[in-house]
Fold this sequence. Notes:
The strands form two sheets. The protein has a five-stranded mixed sheet with strand order 2-6-5-4-8. A three-stranded antiparallel sheet has the order 1-3-7. Strand 5 and strand 6 form a beta hairpin. By secondary structure, the chain is α/β, with parallel strands linked by helices. The longest helix has 16 residues. The protein is 26% helix and 18% strand.
Amino acid sequence: MFFQRAPVREFVGFHGTNNRTAQFWKDKGAVLKPPPTTSTYDFPGLTVLFNFFSSRKNNDGSSGADAELGAGLYITDDLTLAFGFANNNKLFNPGTTAAICAIFAVDSDKWRESPKLVIPELLRGDSRDCGVAQQLDQARQAYISLQATLDPGTEIRVGPLSSEINQLLVQPPLAPNFQAECINVDDRFNPNIRPAGFPSDVPFPPLPYTSPEIVANWKIVPPSDIQAAVARLMVGLPGGKG
């Protein structure tokens, strides 16, 4: 008799949200896009008007709040950054409290085989100008279409925020493949210690997405600046940002 092995989940990162979204995800059993009455900040679309993690006046893409990899759910490998998003989320959604979520791929085997790629710096960013925002998104789509091994729309997008902090984007159609375990937090939260309530399969400290081990195990395709420049030209943008 053949027995099929039950899927084993895998931790993929953190997301900062509010208690209403955390409860919504718990009830649904997946990180689905919450209704507007629950949260307006968890699945940013293009042209998000507020950049909470940059003092720059132009919204040129320094955080997931900018939707700089595209529209969808942003997950980070840095707990401190997720904590910052949680605090801003509660401000964006009055009457809520901050919550930190550990995000898991429902099936580790499928997660490790799913297509993933780093979006080159030339293609990361959003804009207050809807036309430019659309062009940037079209350039990302063009870049993905140039990857022979990828089926556009099925990919997980990765983007470094700094030399040590990274984010990845889960596009809305892929959200049912992920679950969240969330806890409420307050200003006394210590990001260097495993928070009470997080399960034991959340590694501390978690490995960054750019670590050789994660890149190899998750099969993350490295960026190509040449293809990024071509993709920009394909949609009418200059080949470089400068």
